[in-house]
Amino acid sequence: NAGVTQTPKFQVLKTGQSMTLQCAQDMNHEYMSWYRQDPGMGLRLIHYSVGAGITDQGEVPNGYNVSRSTTEDFPLRLLSAAPSQTSVYFCASSLQWRTEAFFGQGTRLTVV
Amino acid sequence: GNSVTQMEGPVTLSEEAFLTINCTYTATGYPSLFWYVQYPGEGLQLLLKATKADDKGSNKGFEATYRKETTSFHLEKGSVQVSDSAVYFCALSPSSNTGKLIFGQGTTLQVKP
């Protein structure tokens, strides 16, 4: 059972480039979220989804897009990378609200 | 709005010492409360949770009690081990049906032999 799978694990981008961070879960979870982790700031919510076709903004959505065409996948798109987006990104899923969230291993992104 | 505040780290303890990591929260309604742990180079794992006032969550010797009167969810362990060295995050899930988590800033624990 793979759980939550994120790809890639590491990525270096140049300012202005675009890319998609992939997230897939095989637990049939309805709820999925993207967070970024920065030193001293904990994890901050970027976007979240309560089911296929439904997404909403979190605390720090600017510069990121998401879509949820299937229950399994929740990709995060960086439209035009900026150095301020250098961070570690985590995808998470949960079966229901208030239940345990399962996290991927993270993607370490550096924008130069 | 919803927020979580944790004690600042790093916390350095000797093996077998008593651990407390303070966590307080601000939320409307009745949130659920969680402690997650992150080992070096890994994602977060659920350590324990509590879904209503006066509930006690426990796992692997760690405990935390949901105190609505003091809006707190402090993490405790009676005797820490070197293997407990990690970053600990307090988090809340708001009353609304969204699956969102609001995290504190994390507390790094280092346990020395």
Task: Briefly say what this structure is.
Chain A has 112 residues and is mainly beta. Chain A has no helices and 11 strands. Helix content of chain B is 0%, strand content 50%.
Q: Which descriptors would you attach to this protein?
A:
heterodimer; A: 112 residues; mainly beta; seven-stranded mixed sheet; four-stranded antiparallel sheet; B: 113 residues; six-stranded mixed sheet; 0% helix; 50% strand; globular
Q: How confident is the prediction overall: mean pLDDT of chain B? A: 94
Strand fraction of chain B: over 45%
Task: Please estimate the helix content of chain A.
Answer: under 10%
* Order of helix and strand elements from N to C terminus of chain A: EEEEEEEEEEE
What structural class do helix, strand and pairing data of chain B support?
mainly beta
N-C termini distance of chain A:
36 Å
- Report the oligomer: heterodimer
The rounded Rg of chain B comes to: 14 Å
Shape of chain B: globular
- Residue share in helices of chain B? under 10%
Average pLDDT confidence of chain A is: 94
Low-confidence stretches of chain A: none
Tally of individual helices of chain B = 0
Number of strands of chain B: 12
Compute the CA-based radius of gyration of chain A: 13 Å
What does this structure look like?
The complex is a heterodimer of chains A (112) and B (113). By secondary structure, chain A is mostly beta strands. Helix content of chain A is 0%, strand content 50%. In chain A, strands 2, 4, 5, 6, 9, 10 and 11 form a seven-stranded mixed sheet that branches. In chain A, 37% of the residues are buried. The model of chain A has no long low-confidence stretch (mean pLDDT 94). By secondary structure, chain B is mostly beta strands. Chain B is 0% helix and 50% strand. Chain B has no helices and twelve strands. Chain B is globular, with a radius of gyration of 14 Å. In chain B, 39% of the residues are buried. The model of chain B has no long low-confidence stretch (mean pLDDT 94). The chains are: A mainly beta (112), B mainly beta (113).
